[in-house]
Amino acid sequence: MSDPIHPRGAKPRHLTPGRIGLYAFLVFAAAFFLLPFYVMVVTSFKTMPEIQQGNIFSLPSKLTLAPWVTAWAKACTGVNCEGIRVGVLNSFKIMIPSTFLSILLGAINGYALSFWRPRGGNLIFAVLLMGAFIPYQVYLYPLVRMLSMVSLYNTLPGIIVVHVIFGMPVMTLLFRNYYAAVPVDLFKAARIDGGGFWTIFTRVMLPMSGPILVVAAILQVTGIWNDFLFGLIFAGRDHLPMTVELNNIVNTTTGTKAYNVNMAATILTAMVPLIVYFVSGRWFVRGIAAGAVKG
Amino acid sequence: MKPLRLRRLSAQAALIPTWVIVIFAYLGTILWTIRISFTSSGILPKYDFVGFEQYERLFRSARWIISVQNLAIFGVMFIVGCLVLGFLMAVFLDQRIKGEGIFRTIFLYPYAMSFIVTGLVWAWILNPTLGIQHAMHNWGWTSFSFDWLARGDRAIYMVGFAGIWQSAGLVMAILLAGLRGIDEDIWKAARVDGIPTWRVYISIVIPMMSGMFVTAIVLLAIAVVKVYDIVVAMTGGGPGISTEVPAKFVIDYLFNRQNIALATAAASVMFVAVLVVLGPWLYRQYFRKERRAA
Amino acid sequence: MNTVTKNRALAVVASAAFGLAGMQAQAADKAEVIHWWTSGGEHAAVMEFEKAFDAQGGDWVDAAVAGGGGDAARTDGINRIIGGNPPTAMQFNTGKQFDELVSNGLLRNLDPLAKEYGWKDKINPVLLNAVSVDGHMYAVPVDIHSNTWLWYSPEVLKKAGLEPPKTWDDLLTDLAALKKDGVIPLAQAGDAWTQVLTFYNVLITQGGKDLYMKIIKDHDVDAVKSPEFLKVAETFGKLRDYVDPGMQGRQWNQAIALVIDNKAGFNFMGDWAKGEIDVNKKVPGKDVGCIPGLGHQTYWVGGDVFVFPKVKSKAEQASQALLAKVLLEPKVQLAFNEKKGAVPVLKDVSSEGMDQCAQKGLALLKSGDYVPSSDILITPDMSGSIQDLVSAYFTDKSQTPQQFVDQFAAIIGG
């Protein structure tokens, strides 16, 4: 293989009309995607009187950093005025184990269901798929009762369990479908070599799951980091995630809305997923499956 | 080789946590939801039995009917839009692009941001007196008119549009993962045979990526059935009730309107509808084909 | 064991386990309070409660949750009560929202406290009625808001050569004149609940108190089918002609801002709009005019209350009692309501220091010209159905007043 760490569709070319069209499409698409972001950024640097003038596309006439400072350290949620920084540590405490566990369970499920065909596997998959279509809010009441029974309600492990539960359908689906494209000969060869359930999983399957692990991480990091409802209901007072504060800042109904602070707070809270998206690139590599067969 | 049975045993053991979750969290809740939908519960569950009363009320409700119609419009537009745009972006990004990481992040960022705020920004941009129309008028194009968000018969399309903006990047990431999972040798072979690139995509790559497409479609379908935030942030269901959706119906009745019986009836209808509409397709995708011999 | 008893048994086990855990977690005199007052003015107001409570030996632990007009906070609180880990106190809107918690025996009966402090003689009777179930008091009301004000820009009216309206016909004439002048006649927000406020304003102040009570309290279908109500539907329908295309997507604060900035003539909104007027350094009643109802001037009594879930710990019960007492102290009531833009719940308060609009409201309260808000009279379920109908009618000009009346009758008739 010529260059395994670089992506490749068709054969590499130099600057041709086709390539120019390609970049033109990408730049145009990027501009479309960035338009709302532009509005958010300029709004976050404007003062409130300027925002109320109503020209949403104009650059700020007088740049102010105050909304950013307020969002991070001063915005009030009830009587506490400490901005969104308070919940950040809690958000990490919830996100890291939840993301890790839900991806691990999803990968095991997908692998077991694809290759081992365990008894009742179809039932598991069918129930998970169907369950994924019911609005989360319907689950709240029964889950509160169940977690209370096992003393997990309003605890850190409790909120992690909740995230693992709700991540399971999509994670299972993701890995099951990814492994469906893995040549079955690979699995057979590993079994002839005497590999057991866990050996094949850790030595063969996981190493070739790079791109799908990234997709899974994108889904879970974003979903769990931005979760508001479960954090509010299940985490308990000592572990409230940052989004509860974000919500308190953004979502007031009968008070003055500080749009500039809202925009700044939203961009700040999105930083963690954005960093994950950006650095995830190196795992988006091609051709590992082929290498595994040959290697 | 260990006996087959033993190996299967470790596969079964590995699925124990999954079984616990499936039985208690999913099956249990689904059954509970259906049970409550036959009661007269208000804000707290009451275990009486009133037959199909809640369902009758549900289907008499103009709002529910509009919600279901909107779901169909939004669903088709959203799924098709995300798949087409997401696939194009994935393929174009897969051409040894300079700055791939930056483009990828730009396409994905809408997914990272709370829609409560980005939805507000879209509402501004599409508002005739604030956004694009206003800007065009300021620049001298006074006949320019773009007021779909303010029109009851068209606002739902704008919601679909913002939905595509939010989720197309995710489809791009999933399909890109699929593209990157395809064996390099396929491309080499195609090149040797002189097959044009577009034909390779259509005849070889897309069929090979069917798993990733199914993943994307199921994820999008889940998002369609649960669509809520985007409507709340952009239109609040308005003008009037013209952009209401089923999940918003469920949530409004579950909390704000304190009628969990009607809410669970609506959730049960959604559940059954999913079963009827997606069930056969999912069944064909997953259960009928005996694709693998373990 | 049938389902009910089984669930009850589980609840007992759960609450036993959590009662213990709760006691350890909550040291003496800590009071965890769930509320949804998170905006600037609201924050300043709730600080008054905290200061007063802490000064008397309490320890306020704030558990604010914003969103959806209190939806998120109520979801959190109710789930915690069910899960056996209730907060010390929790906010609701004045009305029927907590009725079911009462009937399930989850809230503390406040009768002993009411007797000790003589609340039944001091609190406005409408509110006392609203917080009582079968004659027992289950919540402490803390403020009175009126949702039916008509705000106007004196400057816009002056420029157009118009007088502030006194009747609904005056208003319709003024609106037509403003429309001709190319000014936004009626600044209306796109959110359904704001359109419902506008509707109730027409119903109460054009249709009158009696019509409102007959329909909303007694669910009298004949009253809905009366010519008076048809007139209300027509007037409300005519307002559709005077809103601008920017209505959809506009929030209530942007709508009142149009009046404050003299870009629009009128706006229907509750008295919390004063917060926005203050923020813009203008004076309610002077820079922005306020009318507590055209035709029949009527005060629409709504507001907020606190409930106290049943708790096991004696120390926590003591802090509940202390908190309830503090919330209703005259000094605290005045300080809180001044910042909240509302009126105290106690009968004997002086109007000194209140702005012109609040004084108008207080005068109506004292003269008995008031009705309980629809939240007090009907269930959230029926409120919701009315909201769906009203906003659909208001945003679709093809619907006729008669159609509106028929659908309204169907909702009221059940």
Automatic annotation (TrEMBL), chain A:
**Entry GO CC:** plasma membrane
Q: Which InterPro entries match?
A: MetI-like, MetI-like_sf
| A Pfam family it matches | BPD_transp_1
State the membrane topology: Multi-pass membrane protein
Asked if the keyword Membrane belongs to this entry, the reply reads yes
| Organism name | Thioclava dalianensis
| Any GO BP | transmembrane transport
Q: Which PANTHER family does the protein's record reference?
A: ABC TRANSPORTER PERMEASE PROTEIN (PTHR43879), GLUCOSE IMPORT SYSTEM PERMEASE PROTEIN GLCU (PTHR43879:SF1)
Record field: transmembrane: 20-39, 94-116, 123-144, 156-175, 196-219, 263-285
Q: Which UniProt keywords apply?
A: Membrane, Transmembrane, Transmembrane helix, Transport
Tell me its family.
Answer: Belongs to the binding-protein-dependent transport system permease family.
Keyword Cell inner membrane among record annotations: no
ABC transmembrane type-1 domain sequence ranges: 88-280
Q: Where in the cell is it found?
A: Cell membrane
Q: Which SUPFAM superfamilies match?
A: MetI-like (SSF161098)
Protein name from the UniProt record: Sugar ABC transporter permease
UniProtKB/TrEMBL annotation, chain B:
Q: What's an example Gene Ontology biological process for this entry?
A: transmembrane transport
Q: Quick one: signal sequence residues?
A: none
GO (cellular component) term, any one? plasma membrane
Kindly list the places in or outside the cell where this protein is found, as annotated in its UniProt entry: Cell membrane
Q: What are the entry keywords?
A: Cell membrane, Membrane, Transmembrane, Transmembrane helix, Transport
ABC transmembrane type-1 domain mapped to chain residues = 68-279
**Principal location:** membrane
Q: Which InterPro entries match?
A: ABC_transporter_permease, MetI-like, MetI-like_sf
Its domain of life reads Bacteria
Q: How does it sit in the membrane?
A: Multi-pass membrane protein
Pfam families in alphabetical order = BPD_transp_1
Per the UniProt record, which residue ranges are transmembrane? Answer: 12-34, 71-93, 105-125, 155-179, 200-225, 260-283
Which family is this protein grouped under? Belongs to the binding-protein-dependent transport system permease family.
Tell me what this protein is called.
Sugar ABC transporter permease
Automatic annotation (TrEMBL), chain C:
Q: Which Gene3D superfamilies match?
A: Periplasmic binding protein-like II
Which Pfam families is this protein grouped with? SBP_bac_1
Major localisation: periplasm
GO cellular component terms attached to this protein's record: periplasmic space
**Signal sequence coordinates:** 1-27
Quote the PANTHER family the UniProt record gives: ARABINOSE-BINDING PROTEIN-RELATED (PTHR43649), BINDING PROTEIN COMPONENT OF ABC SUGAR TRANSPORTER-RELATED (PTHR43649:SF28)
- Write out the function statement from the record: Part of a binding-protein-dependent transport system for a sugar.
Q: What is this protein called?
A: Probable sugar-binding periplasmic protein
Query: Which organism is the protein's source?
Result: Thioclava dalianensis
